[in-house]
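ok trying again, last paste got cut off:
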Amino acid sequence: MKKIITLSMFLIAFSLIAQEDSEEKKKFSFSGSVDAYFQTYLTAPDNEEVSFGTAFADQSGFALGMGNVIISYEGNKVGAVLDLVTGPRGSAATFNSDIVDGIVNQAYVYWNVSEGTTLTFGRWNTFLGYEVIAPAANFNYSTSYLFSSGPFSHLGLKADFALGDDFSLMLAVTNPWDTNNISMTGEYALGAQLGYSGQYLNLYYDSGEHGGLGFEIDYTGGFDLTDSFYLGINAAYNDNDGSGFYGAALYPQLATSDSFSIGLRGEYFSLHGDGDDLPSVFATTLTGSYTIEDFIIKPEIRLDSWSNSMPYIDNDGEATDNLAAFTLAAIYTF
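nice, full thing came through this time. structure:
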């Protein structure tokens, strides 16, 4: 009987230890994505001198996007996230010219001070704009002028407050615009975000000196007009000592089935400042998205047309104000 009791106690203790180990393992999570694409210009030669001028996906022929691995640990009150990227998209997003070695995209720790308050310290991707760095989280594969003109990441301290079921508030103090390591000038930037039911008003300010962004106000949101039709919206105004940019973009998206959706990005973007007739562009991007389990295929046609500027060349090598391209992207998420 003693042997049976001893054996039973051993099995119970072993079960509790195994359960605790299992719970500890559940706190770790791994995710990420890998993407590549093919791009050909319809109105210009496929060479390195031609690109839309927006961030990422700026190569012709077959090209890599990026690979990233996100490692996160979540405790009862505290946690940490490390997001490592490699490839041209990751290099451009972190302003790193090395496309081979791993690059830190995000690295931060956080503390859930209370049920409605979280402090985050480190480097994290920007709260401004509709689009993000990771291609799997965007509907369109290429990126907008508004996204390309704003910051990609911030390094600093932010506080997130849940103000009820619908309202949220974020306040941040960071290094200036896209200063991903240290602030070399002793200057800092301020950020804020007010959210209500999926609609966000974002504010950012730095001095504008030493290549800073200056002041930007940005609205990001969207509405489910039907069960299968969604309309995303982004609008922003930037000013840096009397010059900057402004623009707006609409993102209508229609789900035709569980595996296929089609979406359009229509964007108007303009520079402002001293002088009349500054350049502006209207860009239209039509994207399909076909999902097979965790694999996404995105065919895309894009046409950009500028006014008061001729930044492209045509197939004859002559300057022109418009550029069209076809892109086929493949993205795997895990």
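cool. Residues 279 and 308 are 5 Å apart (CA to CA). The helical segments are 2-26, 88-93, 145-149.
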